[in-house]
Amino acid sequence: MKNLIKRLILLLIIAVSIPHSFGQNSAAQSDDFKRIAIAPTLSPELNNYPQASLNILKNKMKNIVSLNGMSALEGSNIFIIYPQISVIKSEVTATSPAMYALRLEVIFNVADFYTGNVYASAAHEVAGVGRTEQVAYNAAFQQIPDRAGKYKVMMEKAKTEIIGYYNTHCDLAISRAKSLAAQRRWSDALDLLNSVPPVSRECFDKANLAAEEIARNMPVIIPTEHPVDDAQAKAKEVETQDMVELGNNVFIRYKSARLIGDITTVYFELISRNEDDFDQHFYRIYETFIINEKGEELRIKQMKVGKKESNYYIKATLIPEVNTELVCEFPKVKEIKMLRFMINDNLFRFKNIVL
User: Fold this and answer.
1) Phi and psi, residue 342, nearest 5°
2) What is the C-alpha separation between 208 and 265, in angstroms, rounded?
3) What stretch(es) of the chain map to CATH 2.60.40?
């Protein structure tokens, strides 16, 4: 009887523990994979298709990548997703007015940018009808179900292959990043290193060290033709209630600050007044600091912009009319006398931030 009771207790403990462990593992896995960057790419072979229709196809690829827990980052990534289009049927109807009718097979491939090796694929047939060929292609590509299970399976397979790549070819990835940095393609190099997922722990740590080295050696400002240093930069002292332009029609506004455990967290929001999406770069994040109640400078631990986080570099895509949260994390303090960071060619100093 005692043994039976012990067994029942053991089974109860296991039953309670398993869901909890599974939930933790699932959350960790999601966080691990979100750094993996896959660039939606259109090959020159597709130039004979209407550009507006190809833009729809590109947005479908972005959605597929993002919906499956990875970053749809355009740039010099190791990994890309690209489409192949096969025209199964194309005709002009005898109706009045005449209509273009298309049946297509669209195949998405996740591949290695450098070798062309395809890690995973998924195909889908679509049809479209329109008064012009472009309208017919638009209608067909709009039918691609980016939330379909087949694309989830494709991306899961790609994740497994990509993790395997980082586990076996880490030195090659870091070498490529250093080569990009040597060409002064700093943001491309840091994007590549920042895409290494934490689940590839050894490669992740190596990539962070390489990124910090590159970030230390790069100019303060990359987009300008004549980079400036701190002494040349314009210093702007900002009242916390003000909205300040960073340049390029992008604005920053202070929201709040609070102490969470041992971390001092300061919240801002970024507002883009551009008509199109805009890529805002944050370089040398580790030079951001606060001055505490003792007059001591305390360097930033981490900056987060949207879902991206780093202490050396972030490229964030800002969408018009959608405010993006920027979060700065510092060591614990009682007071923030001043927070300083550099964005574009300006130093910004926010004074007397209330916790």
Assistant:
1) -115, 130
2) 23
3) 234-353
CB atoms within 10 A of CB 275: 8
Residue 221's SS3 state is: coil
| Dihedral angle sign, alpha carbons of residues 216, 222, 225, 227 | negative
d(CA 314, CA 210): 15
Phi (first) and psi of residue 102, to 5 degrees: -125, 145
Q: Does domain 234-353 bear CATH number 2.60.40?
A: yes
Q: How far is CA 98 from CA 35, 95, 102, 340, in A?
A: 48, 5, 13, 64
Mean pLDDT confidence for 208-218:
83
Environment class of 74 (CB within 10 Å of its CB; exposed 0-12, middle 13-18, buried 19+): middle
**Residue 191 near residue 173, CB atoms below 8 Å:** no
Its pTM surpasses 0.90:
no
Written as one letter, the residue type at 253 is R
> What does pLDDT average to over the chain?
82
The number of residues making up the chain comes to 355
Rounded Cα gap, residues 209 and 312, in angstroms? 10
Q: Encode pLDDT of 50-96 as tens digits.
A: 999 999 999 999 999 988 888 766 655 789 999 999 999 999 988 88
> Rounded to an integer, what is the distance from CA 21 to the centroid of its chain?
28
| Pair of tokens at residue 30 | 């999601």
Q: What is the pLDDT of residue 237?
A: 63
Grouping H, G, I as helix, E, B as strand and the rest as coil, residue 350 is strand
Q: Where are the alpha helices (DSSP H) in 122-268?
A: 133-142, 149-168, 170-182, 186-194, 201-217
Contacts of 128 (CB under 8 A, 6+ apart): 101, 102, 104, 135, 136, 137, 138, 139, 140, 141, 142, 143
| CATH class of the structural domain 38-168 | alpha beta
* Spatial separation of the C-alpha atoms in residues 140 and 127, rounded to whole Å: 5
- Partners of 100 in beta bridges: 92, 130
